[in-house]
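Let's sit down with a protein and look at its sequence and fold side by side. Which protein we use is up to you, so please pick one and set it down. Label the sequence line and the structure token line clearly, so we can match residues to local backbone shapes. Go ahead whenever you are ready, and we will take it from there:

***
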Amino acid sequence: MNVRIVSIVVLLAALGLTACSQSNGQETQQAKPQRRAVPVTAVLAEARTVPLTLTAIGNVQAAETVEVKSQIDGQIMAVHFTEGQDVKKGDLLLTLDDRAAAAVLAEAEAKLEHDVTLLNKAKEDNRRYERLVADKVISPEAYEEVSTNMSALMSTLRADQAAVESARVALSYTVISSPISGRTGQLLSHMGNMIKKADTSVVVIQKIEPIQVAFSVSEEHLSEIMDRMKAGKLGVSALPTGQKGAPAEGLLEFVDNAVDSATGTIRLKATFANADRRLWPGQFVEATLTLGSQTEAVVVPAQAVQAGTQGDYVYVVKPDMTVESRTVTVGRIVEGQALIDKGLTPGEQVVLDGQLRLGPGALVEIKGAGLPEARAAGDGGSGPGGAPGGGNGKAKAAQGAGQ
């Protein structure tokens, strides 16, 4: 009897331990955390034609700059322009006191007239003495003396004519005209002031229609620039720093004849019509040189490309909503867009934001689920919601919602 009771107790104890073990296993299984999806934004890689450009900070320069200086000493008697005025080549700018120069010219002209009279008399004597020596009335020596005197007076006359011309030029310097068409700057010497020959500038005139923009690019682009210039002039756009709107359009006109060894750059200049005078000398601009265009280029926002120890990579969203780390080769960055030479095909979806929480095989959730682009991402396709790479995923999702 006692043996039976002990057996029953042992059996009940075993059944209790088994039930407890099963209960603990179920609790452990329920307590195991579920795999969570990482929220990210994503965009589709797109094939498009993109311009090949080089961007640099440039400086606006006048096409021509002239410092107007006096070529004689004198007093300013009149100013015939206002500061900041547009002038044309030959327009009168300043008038200097011309009395001293006029007196020098009058003196030179008087001496010329005197020597002309003497030369005429010497010529007449030479003709008369020539007949007398032929008739052997006078000696040859007497004739040679008269002839030499005439030749000397002829030389004196040429010197007098030069002196008169010099005096006329000096007198013309009392009237200062604009040597180029352009815009005047600040007047540095006013009416009544004495100015000296080539001492200081009276005014600076700059030609701003057309105008030039100077900028530098890395020497590694020099061969490509020279090759493309063989087919024609390259376009350059310039947008003043801090301004918005459409940039001014011009043409590349100048490539420097040497690379700056200190900076490893080559200096370029572009010319702009500047009819609206949007560009101004001394201004800083963002200059963009267009080398050409690349067709069927795979483009994603540069933000999607990450730098790793093995090179650049992106996270590609697969149809099962997991991500794969894909090594890519970036050709260049153009206006915030990365041109992918190798590693991506059009239509593949890449993570734009949220990469820090990802790893290969991680499960992701596209932000804005239910929007056209997100649904396309979930299906692994490039449906109508697929927007070109050119902004963040939130903006693209909002664009899809708007459609």
